[in-house]
Amino acid sequence: MDAVDAPDSFVIGVDYGTLSGRAVVVRVRDGKELGSGVYDYPHAVVTDVLPEDVAGRGADGQAVRLPGEWALQVPNDYRDVLRHAVPAALAEAGIDPAAVVGIATDFTACTMVPVTSDGTPLSELDRFRNRPHAYVKLWRHHAAQPQADRINRLAAERGEDWLPRYGGLISSEWEFAKGLQLLEEDPEAYAEMDHWVEAADWIVWQLCGRYVRNACTAGYKGIYQDGRYPSEDFLAALNPQFKDFVSAKLEHTIGRLGDAAGYLTAEAAAWSGLPEGIAVAVGNVDAHVTAPAAKAVDPGQLVAIMGTSTCHVMNGAELREVPGMCGVVDGGIVDGLWGYEAGQSGVGDIFGWFTKYGVPPEYHRAAREAGLGIHEYLTELASRQAIGQHGLIALDWHSGNRSVLVDHELSGIVVGQTLATKPEDTYRALLEATAFGTRTIVDAFREAGVPVKEFIVAGGLLKNPLLMQIYADATGLQLSTIGSAQGPALGSAIHAAVAAGKYADIREAAAAMGSERGEVYTPIPENVAAYGELFQEYKTLHDYFGRGSNDVMHRLKAIQRRAAGAVLPGTTAGSTVRATAEVSA
């Protein structure tokens, strides 16, 4: 039956974010969103101590503490999204679940789960439940920076041909750095692990009972290029025990985006209220599925998914090496084009950190009296300022720098503060800093011969009109927002429709189901000029602190580690985990 014929069929898209999972019910013939459900992870992001309800206590009877730069999650929270958010979305949509033909999911990339051969996370085994390395390492787990540094140095020394595909540097967030950290800091857990799995693939495994590795994370986060991973010889040079990491822990059947990984099991059907046997799409990444949701499947259409962090994705007709990119992958977004990815490690997280720790009580009180959230209140105050009136310039590195420096040892800074500086001044400077970070990425693309013609924003931060206008003015690009409030979930639903055979490919499905544009922000010429002047100051600071002129940020990290060194329970004797204070919210 053709997708436009009656009776209607529906698909489910599930977007796994940093703090919650969101499900949406979408009509196949036109992409209409009929119902949604949200489930907040009960354990959120674990950065201080392992939650006692799942981990218990350590051998000393105390809660198991984590060093800084760690960010873990509890895998059962992801299953609970299927138990709660999907039924809620079905109920709101008011449809017969029997009319659902497919489900697809997306995840934050480089969120890694160590599992046994049947997919059981190590953290769910009794003898490992109080071992930090047995838990999910979230994308923003940055404690593997020393391992990433070694990988980068060795790859550069050897002239590894995959390194330029990642802008010359791989990140501490990615699969190999985190895997090497696991080996070196908890070799027993590493030995117990049969598969080092992206959460994007683990949740699909939970749904259909089959482990299929998606092409997107394999290419962008797993250093899989031209049909191969880094060689055993390279891995052995890092650590002899790491030699068979690919063959023993990582390598697996790779599924094409939009294909069916399998079909919904009876157990997953009981969790979700969906029919057993419907198509389950190959896993994918939140940013990459959003491009089809925004109908941005042609070269030059840059999509920024702005939330706690920002991921920038774009298709290109030709392969180019772009310094500091997160990667370029053949067919990484849609077949037939090169998919480029860049990103900023902290955006909404920075704004959240500032409102939590940098805003005095009287501002929170005034916001409540005005019937506003603290972000809305500060935005209103900041919007009254002329560009440059606050006298500040900031670097948006509170969670490190993903692109273009690929260095999570960097940290945030605000220059120009005086005794007259107010919270709204700093807040606006931080908004502007993230816009300058995006302009740096846009400039890097253009300078490498990858044209950026259009700028489209999705994610939670598009609700802030001041921020959107700042981005348009700082980049000089017309900015349009995606019309859907659930861009990644809609993108996943589009992939579900393809996996269910309702459309021939992602392009066809995107044309029929993708969201129309929402608000449009046009650069204001005088603002573009004003931000051009400020951007030069940002660029000076960016290069001074980020390109080796002054390594004070790295030195401070080293001092911090010496002061806060710790040994994790369950690690081998003498295996010291470098600890740093948590910087981001």
UniProtKB/TrEMBL annotation:
Biological processes, Gene Ontology terms: L-arabinose catabolic process to D-xylulose 5-phosphate
GO CC annotation: cytoplasm
Gene Ontology molecular function: ATP binding; D-ribulokinase activity; ribulokinase activity
Enzyme class per UniProt: transferase
Pathway(s) the chain acts in: Carbohydrate degradation; L-arabinose degradation via L-ribulose; D-xylulose 5-phosphate from L-arabinose (bacterial route): step 2/3
CDD domains xrefs: ASKHA_NBD_FGGY_L-RBK (cd07781)
Catalyzed chemical reaction(s): L-ribulose + ATP = L-ribulose 5-phosphate + ADP + H(+); D-ribulose + ATP = D-ribulose 5-phosphate + ADP + H(+)
Enzyme Commission number(s): 2.7.1.16
Keywords: Arabinose catabolism, ATP-binding, Carbohydrate metabolism, Kinase, Nucleotide-binding, Transferase
Domain Carbohydrate kinase FGGY C-terminal intervals: 303-500
The organism's place on the tree of life at top rank: Bacteria
Keyword Glycosyltransferase set for record: no
Family recorded in the similarity comment: Belongs to the ribulokinase family.
Name of the protein in question: Ribulokinase
Originating gene: araB
